[in-house]
Amino acid sequence: MAEQCEKKMPEEQTVEGAEGFLVVSDVPEAEETTCVEKDGNESLVVPEPEFVPVDFNSSSSDGHETQKTEDKASLSQEEGSRFADLSENEKKALQELKQLVQEALNRHEFGSSASVEGKMPVAKGEEKKATEEPGKIDPETEKDDSIPVQTIAKTLLEDDGAKTLEAIEETIVACVHSNPTEEKPQEKAEVGAESPQEVFIWGVKLLEDERSDVILLKFLRARDFKVKDAFTMIKNTIKWRKEFGIDDLVEQDLGSELERVVFMHGHSKEGHPVCYNVYGEFQNKELYQKMFSDEEKRQKFLRWRIQFLEKSIRKLDFSPGRISTIVQVNDLKNSPGPNRWELRQATNQALQLLQDNYPEFVAKQVFINVPWWYLALSKMISPFLTQRTKSKFVVSGPSRSAETLFKYISAEQIPTQYGGLSKDGDFGLADSVTEIIIKPSAKHIVEFPVTQACDVSWEARVVGWEVGYGAEFVPSAEDGYTIIIQKMRRIGTSEEQVICSSYKVGEPGKLVLTINNVSSKKKKLLYRFKTKSSGN
C-alpha cells in the first residue's frame, strides 16, 4: 500500500465505485456495493475513499476522442426507456412486473398514504366475520342444552334468481333462522364497490401511461431485470415514502443553509440536468456543527437532502425517450477528511436511503478536485462492483478537473468557479461558447466583425491562464486608426477567472482578441460575443 501511495496518481481515471451520498445510487441491493467499510464511493458528503474505487489501469491510447465517444454512448444508453428499444427478455420482464403491480393495486397491497387514493380493502378475516355476524349464535341460546342439533342438506337460491343446488352439509342450531340469501347481495355489493388503488410516485400514477413504464424500468434495471426483486423494491419504496412523509416533506421549508452545498445548474451536452455537490463547504466549522453536531440535526440534514432530490426528480420528464436521469458533479476540493464521524454517519444513512429508494437516476458521476489519497484507497473496493456501476464514474485530479467537465458539459453551462462562463450578467445559458485549443508557445487571434454602430460585449477565459491577453478595435476604413481596448498583459492562474469586457462601436470594423500562449502546455480558450444596438 505504501508503494501505491508514493506512486504518482493519474489526474483522471474512470472510477470503479458505487454511488454515494449526495448522489443517487442505483446499485442493486444484492451487490452490497457500500457495505465494505473501508471504501465506498460517495457515501460521503465528504466522499470517503471507502466509496470511490478507481481503476488505475483504465487508460485509453486513443486519448480524449475515444473517451468522449464511449461516454456519450453510455449516457445515451441510460435513456433506453422506449419499449421498442428493449430486448425481448426486457419486454417480457416489464410486462410481468406490470401484471404484478396491477394485481397488487387490485388487492390494495400498497397500503394507504398521501400518494395512495381509494378505499382501503376489508381484510379477509374481517369480511368473513361481517358476513357471519347475522347468524351468530346468541350466548344464552348456546347455553341451552335442550336445543337439538342436526345435520341437514339444503338448497340455496342465488340472489339473481338462478336455481343453483349446493349440497352443503353443515351443523346448525335448529332455532336459529339465518337467511344466507339475504347476505349474499350485500357481500357482493361491497366487493364491487372496491376499486383499484391509485398510487403515485414522483408525480406519476402507476400503470396510467407510458411514463409509468419508464419508472418501472428503473426498478427493473436496478435489480438486473429480476421481476420479483424489482416488485419487492417497488413495494418497499412506496412503504418508505409513506413512512418518511415524502409528499409533506416536499412542501416544507427546511432553510437555505445548504444551498451552496448542493445546487442544480445547467444541463449536460446530452440534456441531463446537472447537480453540483460541494463538499468543501463543510470545512466551515459553524455550518458543520449546525448540520451534524447531534442526531436531531443529522436527521434534519437527511430530510433536506431527500427533499432536494425529490424536487429535482419531479422536474424530470418521464416520457419514453426523454431525459429522466441526472449528471452529478462532486467537488472534493477542501473536503473534510474521512475522520469526521458525524458526517460519515449522516452520509451513510443517506446513501442507504438513496440506494434503496431512488434507482437509476444517475447518468454520470463526475468527481473533480479529487485528492490523491481518495484515488489510492478507492482502488481497494473495485473488485466488488459491477461493470454497469463502474461505467458511470469518472474521477479527475485538480489540474484536469475543468477539462474533464468540458467533456460532458458545455462551457456556457458550467459555473465560472469550475472553469466555465456561466454566471449572472449579460450572457445566459443560451449564449453559446466557442472553444479553441492553443498549442504551446503559439499565438491565437480571434476576430469579431461589426457592420454597424452598436455595443459589443464579450467574455473570454483560458483554462489555467498563464498566457498573454490583449484586445483592440480595427476600423474597416483604410484611413481609420486601431483603438487599443486592452494592452497586452500576462494573466496568471491566480488572477480573474473570466474577462468580461464591452466596447461601444461607432463605425464598421472588427474586434480583435489576441491570446499568446507562452507556456509549454496546450491551453483551452473559451469566448463568446454579443451585440446590442446603441439605442438600448
TrEMBL record:
<feature type="domain" description="CRAL-TRIO">
    <location>
        <begin position="251"/>
        <end position="426"/>
    </location>
</feature>
<keyword id="KW-0813">Transport</keyword>
<keyword id="KW-0963">Cytoplasm</keyword>
<keyword id="KW-0131">Cell cycle</keyword>
<feature type="region of interest" description="Disordered">
    <location>
        <begin position="111"/>
        <end position="144"/>
    </location>
</feature>
<dbReference type="Pfam" id="PF25099">
    <property type="entry name" value="GOLD_PATL1_C"/>
</dbReference>
<comment type="similarity">
    <text>Belongs to the patellin family.</text>
</comment>
<dbReference type="InterPro" id="IPR011074">
    <property type="entry name" value="CRAL/TRIO_N_dom"/>
</dbReference>
<dbReference type="GO" id="GO:0008289">
    <property type="term" value="F:lipid binding"/>
</dbReference>
<dbReference type="Pfam" id="PF03765">
    <property type="entry name" value="CRAL_TRIO_N"/>
</dbReference>
<dbReference type="InterPro" id="IPR009038">
    <property type="entry name" value="GOLD_dom"/>
</dbReference>
<protein>
    <submittedName>
        <fullName>Patellin-3</fullName>
    </submittedName>
</protein>
<dbReference type="GO" id="GO:0005737">
    <property type="term" value="C:cytoplasm"/>
</dbReference>
<keyword id="KW-0472">Membrane</keyword>
<feature type="compositionally biased region" description="Basic and acidic residues">
    <location>
        <begin position="1"/>
        <end position="11"/>
    </location>
</feature>
<dbReference type="InterPro" id="IPR036598">
    <property type="entry name" value="GOLD_dom_sf"/>
</dbReference>
<dbReference type="InterPro" id="IPR056794">
    <property type="entry name" value="PATL1-6_C_GOLD"/>
</dbReference>
<dbReference type="InterPro" id="IPR044834">
    <property type="entry name" value="PATL"/>
</dbReference>
<dbReference type="InterPro" id="IPR036273">
    <property type="entry name" value="CRAL/TRIO_N_dom_sf"/>
</dbReference>
<dbReference type="GO" id="GO:0016020">
    <property type="term" value="C:membrane"/>
</dbReference>
<dbReference type="InterPro" id="IPR001251">
    <property type="entry name" value="CRAL-TRIO_dom"/>
</dbReference>
<feature type="compositionally biased region" description="Basic and acidic residues">
    <location>
        <begin position="62"/>
        <end position="73"/>
    </location>
</feature>
<feature type="region of interest" description="Disordered">
    <location>
        <begin position="1"/>
        <end position="90"/>
    </location>
</feature>
<feature type="domain" description="GOLD">
    <location>
        <begin position="430"/>
        <end position="531"/>
    </location>
</feature>
<dbReference type="InterPro" id="IPR036865">
    <property type="entry name" value="CRAL-TRIO_dom_sf"/>
</dbReference>
<dbReference type="Pfam" id="PF00650">
    <property type="entry name" value="CRAL_TRIO"/>
</dbReference>
<feature type="compositionally biased region" description="Low complexity">
    <location>
        <begin position="45"/>
        <end position="54"/>
    </location>
</feature>
<dbReference type="GO" id="GO:0051301">
    <property type="term" value="P:cell division"/>
</dbReference>
<feature type="compositionally biased region" description="Basic and acidic residues">
    <location>
        <begin position="124"/>
        <end position="144"/>
    </location>
</feature>
<keyword id="KW-0132">Cell division</keyword>
<keyword id="KW-0446">Lipid-binding</keyword>
